[in-house]
Specification:
The complex is a heterodimer of chains A (201) and B (238). Chain A has 201 residues and is an alpha+beta fold. Helix content of chain A is 11%, strand content 24%. The mean pLDDT of chain B is 95. Classes of the chains: A alpha+beta (201), B mainly beta (238). Chains A and B meet through helix 1, helix 2, strand 5, strand 6 and strand 10 of A and strand 1, helix 1, strand 3, strand 4 and strand 9 of B.
Amino acid sequence: MSLQATTSQTVGPYFQIGLSRFYIDDLTGPGIFGDVIEIVGRVFDGDGQPVPDGVIEIWQADAAGKYVHPEFLQESENIQATDGQAEEQRRGQSAFRGFGRVSTQADGSFRFKTIKPGRVAAPDGTLQAPHIAVSVFARGLLRRLVTRIYFPDEESNVEDFALKLVEAGRRHTLIAKKLSDGRLEWNVVLQGAEETIFFEC
Amino acid sequence: MMQDMAKFRGYRRAEPGTQPNHLQPAYVSSIKRAPAKPLVYLPHTLSETTGPSFNSSAIDAKASDLTRQGQGEPLGERIIVSGRVLDEDSRSVALTLIEIWQANAAGRYRHNGDQHNAPLDPNFEGSGHTLTDEHGNFRFMTIRPGAYPWRNHYNAWRPAHIHFSVLGPAFATRLITQMYFPGDALLPFDPIFNCTGDEKARNRLISLFDWETTVCEQALGYRFDIVLSGRDSTPWEK
């Protein structure tokens, strides 16, 4: 007889007290390999009102498509540097932790500075398009909402394992838009006509 | 990829009723925030079976004692909250980050948004964190939080609770929940506690008073085990 997972409860309005110690809005740093990107966005409720008390967490692979996690450890140990650049890349990637957490501001906004992730495998043997896994927590949400950020102008999006599960007319809610200043904009709409795709995870 | 995808295993999904539905009209804040469209079932990939971790260098060893964060002792009843983080197959979840936060003994959070006219306690911040040990065990010293009013409905009061955040071994196992206290008269009236349909699942959020961890002349012990999703027993089929 197996146990059952503990039931989820809302993060409530006062999470700042408990979660702010591990707020991480900049995943870049010295020796971290990859293209630096800035993602900005806002969270909206079903009335189009900003959500000023949300938490956004991100989890992503490094630029080479590797996760800093034991399931990748064995594989990483098998990687032999073939030249100086590969060695530099390998060392740089070890500094990348892949995890970010921020709260939304009064206007519902949030931002992360990170690197563009590489492609990681899907269980069907294909490669997924570059993406960032996202958890959204807020007062009013009894369970976290799970979604993903994909990248614009990314040819591999059309063959992506997860995007293919989503009706074509709503896929755009998962794909960031490129702003004129180079930043990426990706909003979260909790409810309504432009509701973001959320996954049962 | 060197990973053998034929052996790829995700994490198990919740049994019906054991997790809250997103929309809970009795919990007013959910009405405009719960998704209205069906969620899209996502088979787990490496993005979900991996997840963040912190090592001990990131942890403040003093942060598991919430009674030692001010100049003096916080007011209230000292308690020890301990337990084990395990998965649905009873396997220990070792070295995972647990973060907690709570109101003080008077039912007031140290947060600008909390305007309840109960006093703040200069000696109580109300937050702590720790890593589970190699057996999944954790232990916090704190004070028993007070109940407090909220504006969900007329004369609404939250039962005493401590918020728990657990990273777990993977993105798929991320959990935020609340721990309640046995015998709290407010539990039957709380729309957040009652949002989980399955009564047994709901009641597992109530900690157990525990003589084993009660320290003589120091603090009462409460036990709260946290169960995270277990691994699928069968590999992913193409």
